[in-house]
Amino acid sequence: MIKKSLLxxxxxxxxxxxxxxxxxxxxxxxxxxxxxxxxxxxxxAGGEFGIVQHTANTGFGLASIDGQTMWSIGTEVGYFVMDxxxxxxxxxxxxxxxxxxxxxxxxxxxxxxxNIPVQLDFTGASSDDFFGDETPLWLxxxxxxxxxxxxxxxxxxxxxxxHSLNEDFYDKGIFEARIGFALHF
Length: 185
Known about the structure:
Elements: H1 2-29, E1 35-45, E2 51-52, E3 61-65, E4 68-82, E5 85-96, E6 100-112, E7 116-126, E8 137-144, E9 147-148, E10 153-164, E11 173-184
Antiparallel strand pairs: 1-2, 1-4, 1-11, 3-4, 4-5, 5-6, 6-7, 7-8, 8-10, 9-10, 10-11
């Protein structure tokens, strides 16, 4: 009986120690003065093509639909201006089987309780031959969960909604499932 009680106590102490260490690590990764470099993959449902990439993408993507191959590459960088709050900027480039698109993003990301990232941003895109006279702009809201893998890496699956700020642009509202990969330093 005493051995079982000691074993249970040891497991409880180990569990509490591990939980406290994880909290300290997560807090340190999102504390004021830290940097964040992030790359996302995004999968969009809807639109006239079924599952497609968002046309203003600052992440990585590859899709082939009806013989057309679309790919994108990009990244986002953030600086924590206070604990758990990062100001972010991103750039991306996409090729849609000929026409190319340059994308940019400005926003803020807040980590609720240190591991639930919520992001609000403004995204735009430009292209000489893809959008015609339109300059598409979106207001985006994103949320998920951050799994911290050690001191410098996190994986952040989540959902994103981008609302078009253009009256005539075809992407009125876009839902995306995302997986983000971030470096913290």
